[in-house]
């Protein structure tokens, strides 16, 4: 192990109790919320062989590029190496019009024997809408036969956004917040906390969850040396604020590929393997604080990251992401949660 690797450890999230005391909207959580399997007393040792740890099933919460249900058949063909383990998917519609078309054709495809097996695995359609504008769901989507999620970019806070998010949750839709703001600014995190505080119901009320997208992993330049990354504004803000977001019990974090470039393949020459190891070191630097804050029960796997992420083979990201989680010394149920159970609970409920 090099000197640089010895110097860089996954930092724990700093104690932010004082910060929490100053937040107006932060709800209280029971202690059990911070003790999911595999996170109490640090990560247990010895570390298991990640190649031997596989989730019981896979739910992919970020299947993109689907404009027609025929496109989905093509996606399954490309996912042949993990198709048997994939038990459910969330289709991320590229446009509102595409979402309407998919929803309209859904019943007929469900009854078509050529599509039935594939369609039964569709848990939800994610509909792109901008909550910075007044939220009004198109009439066609009011009579849907499939679960819907509403996905909105987040660049800054506004009363309109807070009211829109509240309306989404009151309408019994899963809300996906795609964070596009500068994560190196404390203001971004504080505005996000404020929006959640205004929109989320009290602890006694039960509504659909909120999924934070493009937060794990932030788009910090891959070429930034690890020792400099530790003091990078984005990483420092990430550590300072991620715990505060976890205090909202219905908030989850999506685990998708970063914008660093194409995901390195599982097999390749020494240069490919070197790049892959570097990816894993950096991913775990962000994954560690999220696990400390949210536990493994509120992290959801997705094969799609931000809209700026280069197109990669989904199986390359799945394998890399699975190894990163497994190498943290987790129990089997934690791996099952991240790659299947958590998304099923959120999108199928």
UniProtKB/TrEMBL annotation:
Highest taxon listed in the record's lineage: Eukaryota
PANTHER family per the UniProt record, alphabetical: AMIDOHYDROLASE, AMIDOHYDROLASE-RELATED DOMAIN-CONTAINING PROTEIN
Protein name, entry field: Amidohydrolase-related domain-containing protein
Protein's organism: Dacryopinax primogenitus (strain DJM 731)
């Amino acid at each position: 192990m090099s000197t640089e690797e010895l110097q860089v450890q996954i930092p724990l999230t700093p104690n932010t109790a004082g910060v929490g005391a100053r937040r107006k909207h932060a709800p209280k959580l029971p202690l059990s919320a911070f003790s999911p399997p595999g996170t109490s007393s640090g990560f247990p040792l010895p570390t298991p062989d990640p190649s031997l740890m596989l989730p019981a099933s896979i739910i992919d919460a970020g299947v993109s590029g689907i404009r027609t249900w025929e496109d989905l058949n093509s996606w399954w063909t490309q996912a042949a190496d993990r198709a048997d383990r994939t038990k459910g998917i969330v289709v991320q519609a590229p446009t509102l019009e595409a979402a309407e078309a998919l929803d309209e054709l859904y019943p007929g495809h469900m009854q078509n024997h050529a599509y039935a097996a594939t369609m039964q695995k569709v848990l939800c359609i994610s509909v792109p809408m901008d909550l910075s504008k007044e939220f009004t769901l198109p009439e066609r989507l009011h009579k849907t036969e499939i679960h819907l999620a509403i996905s909105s970019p987040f660049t800054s806070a506004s009363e309109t956004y807070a009211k829109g998010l509240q309306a989404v949750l009151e309408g019994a839709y899963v809300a996906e917040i795609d964070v596009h703001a500068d994560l190196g600014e404390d203001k971004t995190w504080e505005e996000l906390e404020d929006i959640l505080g205004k929109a989320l119901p009290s602890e006694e009320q039960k509504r659909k969850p909120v999924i934070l997208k493009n937060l794990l992993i932030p788009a910090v330049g891959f070429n930034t040396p690890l020792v400099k990354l530790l003091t990078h504004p984005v990483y420092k803000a990430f550590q300072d604020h991620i715990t505060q977001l976890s205090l909202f019990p219905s908030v989850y974090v999506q685990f998708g590929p970063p914008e660093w470039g194409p995901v390195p393949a599982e097999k390749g020459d020494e240069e490919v393997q070197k790049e892959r190891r570097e990816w894993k070191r950096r991913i775990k630097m962000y994954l560690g604080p999220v696990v400390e804050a949210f536990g493994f029960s509120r992290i959801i796997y997705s094969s799609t990251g931000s809209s700026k992420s280069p197109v990669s083979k989904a199986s390359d990201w799945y394998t890399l992401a699975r190894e990163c989680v497994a190498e943290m010394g987790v129990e089997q149920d934690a791996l099952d949660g991240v790659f299947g159970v958590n998304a099923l609970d959120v999108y199928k409920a």
